[in-house]
Design a protein that fits this description.
Elements: E1 10-13, E2 42-47, H1 49-55, H2 86-89, H3 98-116, E3 127-130, E4 135-140, H4 142-155, E5 161-172, H5 195-198, H6 202-211, E6 218-220, H7 222-231, E7 239-242, E8 246-249, E9 253-273, E10 278-302, E11 305-317, E12 322-328, E13 334-340, E14 343-354, E15 359-365, E16 371-381
Antiparallel strand pairs: 1-14, 2-4, 3-4, 5-7, 5-8, 5-16, 6-15, 9-10, 10-11, 11-14, 12-13, 15-16
Helix pairs in contact: 1-3
Length: about 400
């Protein structure tokens, strides 16, 4: 079966920018969805409490914290863990009854259903709402209801297990061209931004967009992947991160990250100390993180198809870090410095439909203008941690 790609990218740059709408572009490799606006809708109530309750027996992850907005922001902090070690990093959760477990999973399932359903939902005509008691309200055309029936039949079976393997490469722009197949069509993510917020000239704006744009995902043949991984460590100026494998059950989240913690003096406070009742200046230490993280969640969509939600975060602390002088009323008055770190945080999200055993790559901006990043993802069937008792 030929791989199909379904991509819907969202790019967020934490640079005090106003984005009136998220940029998205359909890959030309994906057929245009059938127009179902003229078809009649049928309302159904579907009981999903058995699936939601069964899901609660499996490990999952908390959503990673969002980066704060503004030119000075804390970088994303992502849990470095695989599914079986998550319970070690969590405080003992409060025991939930069955109703609480169902409600806990309902929101995740609603998001997942809206993301993958075919044909895509019509905002004006369709309704897909999962209540906290596990009842799904579905007002859809016949094709949408048929998709739900097939999907739920897959999910009610034994949850399958899969392994995601990431390779992240950073190199000079163009250095990977000879190892990658030419795209079937130009599929660069195009967006519209609030130019008044950017306050950039046309040429500067074009350069900014190029520096913050990711390409749509592309399938990478096994032989091309093998050739690239063999050659990458020998290419001049290429940084190669071979991330550990993420082993998990379908419908569970997994995250990996690598960060450098950068500490700085963010403020000063005055304290009265003894003996002598002296007033002293005490620095307050803050920290930001410089690095990247990746996340994935997979769901069964067919006999040999996995739907993957892939996310990538990259936070770069601008160097040198700016400083400012602060006057303290101590020791007759003295000036001290505080740091004002600026963190450029980007976030990429995509959805990919892939056959286990195949690979896809994502291509986007690197940490500097002359570099690019290549994220390789290979998905295989594999073992995952045992169930976690609730």
């Amino acid at each position: 079966m030929k791989n199909s790609l379904k991509s819907s990218f969202f790019l967020i740059a934490a640079l005090s920018l106003a984005l009136p709408w998220a940029a998205s572009q359909q890959s030309l490799q994906t057929p245009t969805p059938q127009d179902t606006r003229s078809e009649p809708r049928t309302l159904r109530l579907i009981d999903l409490h058995d699936i939601l309750l069964a899901d609660a027996a499996y490990p999952d992850f908390e959503e990673p914290p969002e980066p704060s907005s503004g030119s000075t922001s804390r970088a994303v902090e992502v849990t470095r863990a695989t599914a079986d070690s998550q319970k070690e990093s969590q405080a003992a959760p409060t025991a939930l009854d069955d109703a609480g477990k169902i409600a806990q999973r309902a929101e995740q399932w609603q998001t997942m259903l809206r993301l993958w359903i075919e044909p895509p939902l019509s905002a004006e005509l369709d309704r897909l709402e999962l209540l906290a008691n596990g009842t799904l309200i579905a007002q859809l055309p016949a094709e949408g209801h048929a998709w739900l029936d097939r999907f739920f039949a897959l999910q009610r079976g034994e949850r399958s297990r899969f392994t995601s393997e990431f390779h992240i490469l950073v190199g000079i722009k163009g250095c990977f061209d000879s190892f990658l197949p030419a795209p079937e069509a130009e599929s660069v993510l195009v967006g519209e931004f609030d130019i008044s917020a950017l306050r950039l000239a046309r040429q500067e704006l074009r350069q900014w967009m190029q520096a913050h744009t990711w390409h749509n995902p592309c399938v990478l043949a096994p032989e091309d992947l093998e050739r690239l991984l063999a050659a990458a460590p020998k290419l001049p100026g290429v940084d190669f991160l071979n991330a550990p494998k993420l082993m998990m059950f379908t419908r569970s989240h997994g995250y990996l990250s690598t960060y450098d913690k950068v500490e700085y003096v963010k403020d000063w406070s005055l304290r009265v100390t003894e003996p002598g009742h002296k007033t002293i200046a005490v620095p307050e230490i803050g920290s930001v993180r410089d690095g990247l993280g990746v996340g994935v969640r997979g769901v069964e969509l067919g006999t040999n198809q996995l739907g993957l939600e892939v996310e990538l975060w990259r936070s770069v602390v601008k160097k040198p870090i700016r400083t400012a002088s602060v006057h303290l009323d101590v020791d007759g008055g003295r000036d001290v410095e505080v740091a004002l770190p600026e963190v450029d945080t980007q976030r990429m999200r995509s959805q990919v439909v892939i056959e286990p055993g195949r690979s896809v790559y994502f291509r986007g901006p690197g940490p500097s203008e002359d570099k690019e990043m290549l994220v390789l993802l290979t998905v295989t069937r594999g073992d995952a941690p045992a169930k976690k008792d609730k």
